[in-house]
Amino acid sequence: MNSKEIDLHEALKKYFGFNKFKGLQEDVINSIIQGNDTFVVMPTGGGKSLCYQLPALVKDGTAIVVSPLIALMKNQVDAIRGISDEHGIAHVLNSSLNKTEVTKVKSDIERGVTKLLYVAPESLIKEEYVNFLQKQKISFVAIDEAHCISEWGHDFRPEYRNLRTIIQKIDNVPIIGLTATATEKVQEDILKTLGMSNAKTFKASFNRPNLFYDVRPKTKNINSDIIRFIKQHQNKSGIIYCLSRKKVEEIAQLLQVNGIKAVPYHAGLDAKTRAKHQDMFLMEEIDVVVATIAFGMGIDKPDVRFVIHHDIPKSLESYYQETGRAGRDGGEGYCLAYYSYKDIEKLEKFLAGKPVAEQEIGNALLQEVVGYAETSISRRKYLLHYFGEDFDEVNGLGADMDDNTRNPKKKHEAKDELLKLLNIVISTKQKYKAKEVVNTLIGKVNALLKSHKTDDQPFFGIGKDKNEKYWMALIRQALVAGFLKKEIEQYGVIKITEKGINFTKNPVSFMMTEDHSYKESNDASIITNTKGGGAAADETLMKLLKDLQKSVAKKHGVPPYAVFQETSLEDMALKYPVTMDEMKNIFGVGDGKARKFGKPFVDLIKKYVEENDVIRPDDFVVKSTGENSGLKLFIIQNTDRKIPLMDIAKSKGLEFNELIQEMQRIVYSGTKINIDYCINELLDEDQQEEIFEYFMEAETDKIQDALDEFDGEYDEDELRLMRIKFISQVAN
Fold first, then answer.
1. Whole-angstrom Cα distance, residue 380 to residue 142?
2. What is the pLDDT of residues 239-255, one digit of tens each?
3. What is 411-513's CATH topology?
4. Angle at CA of residue 220, ends 218 and 222, nearest 5°
């Protein structure tokens, strides 16, 4: 065996120029060379590709590598060709090739030149390829991104399901499954579907100690927060992930306007542009790629210094894989995610049209993301627990590398509450998911609890002294601490563990931290950030601005919020505008608003800055892309022409509520808009007057408050339209 190992080290040096193997690589390669079915779970950056590339180069025959992405294959083929004089050493076989290219690939395989053949699963199904490959000497088949096999994986591909059958048709060769992220459930699924239950399994630790995890609330200030973050990491490489192509284009444009070298990347761009943008990133001609998840699979850039999630991903696997693209060289890697429950609701809506089983899986995965974002315990511990790994949050590598451990929340004794929780799980016969367990504790009836007569039990409502959020936080912490476990097969039913049963017999101290609360509001409210990062407004200045807001409002005979919204005041207390031009860059303040009310505010801030020696953040002035001004003009012109609002929305591809939001933006920033023609059709004069008077006297302009006040007399759209009319007339 020793001579073989020496050979391996020689081969490693010869082909890849490395002197030693990383982590589990050598053991995995030996297993493949010995002809075993082999399963490798190795996080991004752990050197997964080398595990099958080296054995393919030293074994007789051609190794088939099944991979889901054309861009990924191209990268790897280029890399292998770079280490050999023989161009045909590695080839791609997929839909992007023409007839001549396919003939060349076949001839190189027949001549024994090709050691690695990369194929997409769709190509492998083709009769002509199967017939051809049956006649060749195949060394083994490697299945990269093997989590695509499982419906529980974050990137399920139905065509991966048949791979076992196709491989058997070609030849009875060893199978190598590789994945960078898989929960225990997904691992089981992969082994079962590939029919390799006897495979030798190698699982590396999922801990990436050099990555710093930070979750911030997603506020209206997100764009300036991102720009500020990037400017603090000047000339460093980073990736920003968004869920939609539209958002990718918007953010890329915004960064460019603000002097950041950035390009977009998504599946809607043609292949040439995508390849060009990818190369610009690799060659460091640009610093930031704004992308949908299509970007980064297998992109081997070791020095990505930050990964920002503008939108929270659909699963913790996706999150782990995408953040894993940072700091592959072991250097700094900052992983920043913006979280708002509204994004989760949006993703739930997307799931609504899918088959029931898919919905169940999708929702179970989403709730794990919510848990990660809202938890106040070590994020690393939470993440590793999800992948079935224990982490010592005191002495483990990277223990203080997240916002929660740097700024710990207060802990309190929760021994009695944990006991109540565990007893409820036992008393309800371990058949409920987290939501139903919580409902049982707080005494909230729903159809499922009724059908099991749980609401008739003496323990129903035993925890109603605490709210839903509290119990949900406790369940998450009890799961991570090992008192409870989730049955994945049953979409997250909560069961008690042996450790939990022991606790019920002999309760000991259990210290709990309370979850983060990312409070939401319908209207443009802002959440000043927790200590974990991001920006909080200057509270002293904020108080002065509020006093001024009241006195200016009094002078003009309007409610305070009609002068400037609270979000605008908070932005002023963050950016310290001292000229009228700077005032126009404040959130929700346009030309008209600045002219009408801005002067006293600018004077106050200028005086405050001078008296308190405030160092103003000169990079806080975010330039807008100007694309909204076209839409603004279109709306003003068409409302002037009295075009029905539904028609205006349709002609711009907007939903009705999106149009209302745009109109709100216009009037709140100080421009008049006349929509009397459409309000007159909805409400008579008395009704309009009643609502107008309400807004004149109300302390806030929140729609929810107005809905509560009128108690169902008017619907939300009527109140929103009246608020637009009110602000337009009174404040502009």
1. 30
2. 999 988 989 999 999 99
3. Arc Repressor Mutant, subunit A (1.10.10)
4. 55
